[in-house]
Specification:
Elements (H helix, E strand, L loop, with lengths): L43 H15 L65 H17 L8 H26 L22 H19 L14 H16 L9 H20 L14 H5 L9 E5 L15 H5 L14 H6 L42 H6 E2 L3 E2 L25 E2 L3 E3 L2 H4 L7 E3 L11 E2 L32 E5 H14 L3 H14 L16 H15 L6 H7 L28 H5 L11 E6 L14 H4 L14 H16 L10 E6 L26 H6 L10 E2 L4 E2 L8
Antiparallel strand pairs: 1-8, 2-7, 3-4, 5-6, 9-10, 11-12
Helix pairs in contact: 1-2, 1-3, 2-3, 3-4, 3-5, 4-5, 5-6, 5-12, 6-12, 12-13, 12-14, 13-14
Length: 748
């Protein structure tokens, strides 16, 4: 018998896994809610469980391995394929690898569209079909003794939002995609055509408007926190409208799109605020403590759209956040796998809120953000920790900084023999390295380094610290990790992941305001964000930006890079604004029509913004090795040359201190690092640039190369094979038609 299949999505059965709540209430019933009869919708318990099932399979999956890429795996700040295409990490991903272009013909196109046939969990359209089932059945239900109209509206509002979210994820990659609004029968030959990008945007906005109307004034608390609200719908709408106004889809800079985005977002900010969302700001503000603390609250006011986790260690209800485990160094029982690039470290603001003056360096990005004012504070490329924005110290960790945690990690089975650091309360990161051969010490490519405090081959000098569970924050954390577990270290953590937070709402509105010509208003939103981390006055943002649209937009994009660092947002920003080449190379795409040429923004967004294109640049790492005078070490912890010499370390930089004392602590650390020219204070460490991005076979350093067709993606070979009627995107191989794609994502 000939098998039958849906050509654009797979069908399947799902079981209810962890929804997103902070307690187990959403996880009580593990029944299968995919194969159900319509009668289940006549009961609130059944209908609610069905909607919870939608959350379970529709929300971003942030626990996938870094090498997994697909529709359901949105970047969440790790060194994944998207993160390694930005300033945040070094090491080429498939998007910027200059030696292996992505091509349908060599089957290395990441699948954001199709997923797995007959597996609804791993299929974008399988999930959409599941949502459609809920919407159609709920709209057919009449209120009665077991379910009220208010309950129906609340459930429908959530379902419409989740469908909009699914389509938004598709449109940001492909532009127009098939719009499926019903429950088609799985008959052979069934196909839905690709809709225009404009139609898809309108459809998403329509769903979000319905969600807003149906959810009304609903505010979720307690065990229901994490469900979407009318404010969540408005916030996502702002992101969608911003995408439509951005150069990726708006090549001629149609001002009506910016005006529409700005007016809508400004009008709906009241709805977002009325739902209880706002900047998390409990008036601490010491060294950016409010900023750091927001990620430690299960129900933070900043969490407009959040994915919740639990500490369950096994079974179908298990859903743990691995982030803390990824960022914590190995000697705390973490994995310590996330390390920032030198580029992002160099580009963070100085203490006065302005860019570091990199003019005296030989960095390829020393003129980046050329339209923005440079700081008068001296920038030391070899010691970039001094006089930086408060968020700098909450985003990065470096040798000689305190990074406390709670829990005796020595109970972990692989931590035997490690110090407990007073159950984490006295942990200081000392991640400098030494080499076993003098010839390796000065070799940028050498990987034969060993890090202090038993980190050894698992150590890097710099670590990502953003979104950490910092035990020193006075306001504490309302979630927990299991640092004392014998098997998992920090693995069983219920820290929420905030997909869309209130600071982004303000940044989106600032960008839309700037695009609509309201630069003075955009400046005020930027200042509001900086005030939360302790800035006062003009917050390092000049009033002159109000009279220069290009400089103002550059300031907005710069603030996004800093405020949202390591939250999985940067790659889309770079694609939206064509920051890899400024949009100068669309004419090289085979089959690209004339309206693909960028005519707005002077024909090149990078030039207009004063931003150095990412193409042609490299990202390296920063390392601190023991000074030459201490010789080399061996491969064991007790062979640390400084330990063998009896060197006493200074007190680590302690972010619990008053702001002004941090400066003194950092200055003292610098003297210990490099000395002051006196015998009493010799140099202990030496700055080193360590290879980040790859070299070719001849040891020639390679640079990033993002091809212009990557801005709007094509479908995988599997997608094409399973739907021969699906038109391929312009610039991508269409194996069904035997040529290049013909679908135009920019056509309206």
């Amino acid at each position: 018998m000939k098998s039958k299949k849906l050509s654009i999505f797979g069908l399947g059965v799902v079981s209810l896994l962890a929804f997103t709540a902070c307690s187990d209430k959403f996880l009580e019933d593990k029944k299968n809610f995919d194969n159900v009869t319509p009668d289940i919708y006549n009961y609130y318990e059944g209908a609610s469980a069905r909607v919870s099932d939608l959350y379970s399979w529709t929300l971003p999956n942030t626990t996938a391995a870094d090498n997994v890429i697909g529709w359901q795996y949105s970047s969440y700040g790790s060194a994944d394929k998207e993160g390694k295409s930005t300033e945040e990490y070094a090491g080429f991903s498939i998007f910027v690898d200059p030696q292996t272009p992505i091509s349908v013909s060599n089957s290395n196109v990441p699948d954001y569209f199709y997923g797995q046939l007959n597996n609804i969990q791993a299929s974008a359209y399988g999930r959409i079909r599941n949502i459609n089932d809920v919407i159609m059945n709920l709209e057919a239900v009449s209120p009665g003794d077991h379910i009220t109209q208010e309950q129906i509206n609340q459930l429908l509002g959530q379902a419409y939002f989740l469908r909009a979210w699914c389509y938004y994820r598709l449109v940001q990659w492909f532009g127009g995609v098939p719009i499926v609004k019903d429950m088609p029968e799985p008959v052979e030959g069934y196909s839905v055509p690709r809709s225009s990008t404009k139609d898809c945007i309108d459809f998403i906005i329509s769903d979000l408007d319905k969600s807003k109307q149906l959810l009304g004034n609903t505010v979720w608390t307690g065990n229901d926190f994490g469900r979407v609200t009318a404010g969540t719908a408005c916030a996502l709408k702002g992101r969608v409208l911003l995408l439509w106004a951005s150069p990726i889809f708006n090549r001629a800079n149609d001002q009506s799109r910016w005006t529409s985005a700005y007016e809508t977002m400004k009008n709906e900010l009241t709805t977002i605020n009325n739902c209880g969302y706002g900047l998390y700001q409990p008036t601490m503000n010491q060294n950016g403590e409010d900023f750091a603390a927001l990620f430690g609250q299960m129900s933070s006011s900043e969490a407009v759209f959040t994915i919740q986790y639990n500490t369950t260690q096994s079974g179908t209800g298990q859903k743990n956040n691995q982030w803390e485990r990824y960022i914590r160094p190995k000697n705390t029982s973490g994995n310590g796998t996330l390390h920032p690039s030198k580029m992002i470290i160099d580009l963070f603001p100085m203490k006065d809120g302005k860019l570091p003056n990199l003019a005296t360096t030989d960095l390829s990005y020393k003129t980046n953000y050329s339209k923005l004012a440079k700081s008068s504070l001296l920038y030391d490329e070899e010691f970039p920790m001094a006089n930086r924005d408060p968020r700098f110290y909450r985003t990065f960790a470096f040798p000689g900084v305190r990074w406390a945690y709670n829990g005796n990690s020595t109970l972990n089975q692989w931590m035997a023999g490690y110090p407990s650091y007073n159950s984490g309360r006295d942990y200081e990161l000392w991640s400098y390295v030494w080499y076993t051969k003098e010839s390796d010490a000065g070799d940028i490519e050498s990987g034969n380094q060993y890090a202090a405090d038993s980190l050894l081959s698992n150590g890097y000098s710099w670590y990502v610290r953003k979104r950490t569970i910092d035990a020193d924050i006075k306001n504490g954390a309302s979630y927990v990790y299991n640092a004392t577990d014998a098997n998992g270290g920090f693995a069983y953590c219920n820290a929420p992941y905030i997909e869309l937070r209130y600071a982004e709402v303000l940044l989106n509105l600032a960008e839309a305001a700037c695009g609509a010509g309201q630069m003075a208003e955009a400046v005020q939103y930027l200042r509001q964000i900086r005030q939360r981390v302790g800035y006062t006055g003009t917050c390092g943002i000049s009033d002159d930006l109000a009279g220069d649209q290009a400089a103002c937009m550059s300031a907005v994009l710069y603030e996004r890079m800093i405020e949202l660092a390591y939250e999985g947002k940067r790659f889309l920003d770079e694609r939206r604004w064509l920051l890899f080449d400024g949009g100068a190379e669309f004419s090289t795409i085979e089959g690209a029509p004339s309206h693909w040429t960028l005519t707005g923004w002077g024909g090149n967004t990078c030039t207009w913004l004063g931003i150095t294109p990412l193409n042609g640049q490299r990202r390296e790492y920063i390392e601190y090795r023991t000074a030459d005078s201490y010789g080399v070490g061996n491969t064991t912890a007790n062979s640390d040359p400084l330990v063998k010499a009896g060197v006493v370390r200074p007190a680590a930089v302690d972010l619990r201190a008053q702001d002004e004392l941090i400066v003194d602590q950092v200055d003292r650390l610098k003297v210990w690092y490099f000395g002051d020219g006196t015998a009493a204070n010799p140099a202990h460490l030496k700055y080193k640039v360590r290879k980040g991005d790859a070299y070719d076979s001849n040891k020639v350093p390679l640079t990033m190369k993002f091809l212009p067709r990557y801005y709007l993606f094509g479908f995988t070979q599997g997608s094409m094979n399973n739907n021969t009627a699906l038109p391929q995107t312009i610039g991508w191989e269409d194996t069904n038609a035997g040529g290049m794609g013909t679908f135009d994502p920019l056509a309206e």
